[in-house]
Amino acid sequence: MAADAERRLNHETVARLTGAGFARHFVPLAWGGTEGTFTDLLAAVAAVGEGCASSAWCAALWSAHARYAAYLPEDGQRDLWASGPDVRISASVKPSGEARRLPSGWLLSGEWEFVSGVEFAHWLLLAALEPGGDGARCRLFAVPRDDVRVRDSWHSTGLRGTGSHTAVMEPAFVPDHRTFLMADLVSGRPGPGRGRCHTVPAHLAGGLLFCAPALGAARRALGEWSSWAARTQASGRPDQDGSRLHQALARSADDIDTAQLLLEDAARRADSGTRAERDVLRNRRVTAVGADLLVDGVERLFRTAGVHAGAGVLDRSWRDVHMAAAHQLLRRESAGMAYATSVFSALAGEQPVRAGTATLREVTAGEY
User: In what order do the strands lie in the sheet with 123-129?
Assistant: First the structure.
């Protein structure tokens, strides 16, 4: 509850998340990292989410951003991880600011919103468009945390403790070895030193990691609500319809368990290393469905508890789950449209647009 009230994690929590291996989870083996699996990360993030969804959100993103940074040239990776793999990396993948080409690098400046965990980051990955391009040439730039100023701008309903503030950067030089094309990340382009966890298309795993904190928060909400409902049943209060509580518990448990099964299936598919469009779009679809199910399950619990939801765990879980599910990558309508378009195109014998390149704009729509 402290992170929710203070709108930030505390130093002890950050140290524990780092010690648990989240920052190093996808760091290449060459730099002492784990090159871990999406299945293990889903389970670990959801477990943290049962205690604090904001902590889980930051843990998931610090893990994911190390996967992004594996696309840097070797010298750029050395700048980040030469002293060890436990480097916290925050990011904003929505293109912003200005990048000016110089003979041996770039002059980067501007503002980037919704940079989760930025106050505790060692490095940032910031997106900007190449000058004079058609909008498709987006780059990610690795900059030290000391090169940016943090403006307090995160006043959200849910996930309040993520500290997803705005990063402000005065013109600063970024050498060529600290930048890479966003398109390589989106498509999951193979390259030297990249393991299987790095070379998967963005949509194969992106929504999965945003949904994992909500899974933990929903499980916590179910536990808290069940304890309240059991006490209510035991009290024999005449204003409570016992069958209503039984049905709410069963249906919300169905929703949350189903969401977990879908997310675990998506994680296994990501771990397989598949690059097939049908798998990418299926993962995108099922993670969006999972988010919807978590919202439905927690919403039912919240409404059934009514005023008894109070301002405690159930209220916080309700806010956190709704906030996570609102993310761009978890929008069920756009995910369903992309999936159905691919299926219909295949049945009609048409050549579908490749999933890795067609979704660049959506991938860079922001992370909050």
Answer: 89-92, 123-129, 138-144, 179-181
Tokens read off for 296? 């439905």
| Cβ atoms 359, 338 nearer than 8 A | yes
Instruction: Give me 152's structure tokens.
Output: 């307090």
Nearest Cα to 22, choosing from 70, 74, 58? 58
Angle (deg, nearest 10), helices 53-69 and 74-81: 140
Q: What is the pLDDT of residues 303-338, one digit of tens each?
A: 998 877 766 899 999 999 999 999 989 999 999 999
**Residues 60-72 pLDDT 10s:** 999 999 999 999 9
- HEC assignment per residue over 16-41: HHHHCCCCCCCCCHHHCCCCCCHHHH
Q: Which of 2, 40, 355 is nearest to 197 (CA)?
A: 40
Residue with tokens 């190449």: 130
Q: Domains of the chain by range and CATH?
A: 2-187 (2.40.110.10), 202-363 (1.20.140.10)
β-sheet bridge partners, residue 108:
99, 172
Q: What are phi and psi of 168, to 5 degrees?
A: -115, 130
Supply the Cα-derived Rg of the chain in whole angstroms: 21
Give pTM, 2 decimals.
0.92
Residue 84 tokens read as 């060890």
Question: Among 177, 176, 175, 152, which Cα is nearest to 163's?
Answer: 152
* Dist. CA 114–CA 110, nearest whole Å: 14
The whole-angstrom separation of Cα 202 and Cα 359 is: 9
What pLDDT sits at residue 284?
A: 95
Q: Name residue, tokens 């000058």.
A: 131
Check if the beta carbon of residue 118 is closer than 8 Å to that of residue 62: no
Beta carbons within 10 angstroms of residue 170's beta carbon: 10
- Read off the pLDDT of residues 92-143 as tens digits, 9 standing for 90 and up: 999 999 999 999 999 999 999 999 999 999 999 999 999 876 656 899 999 9
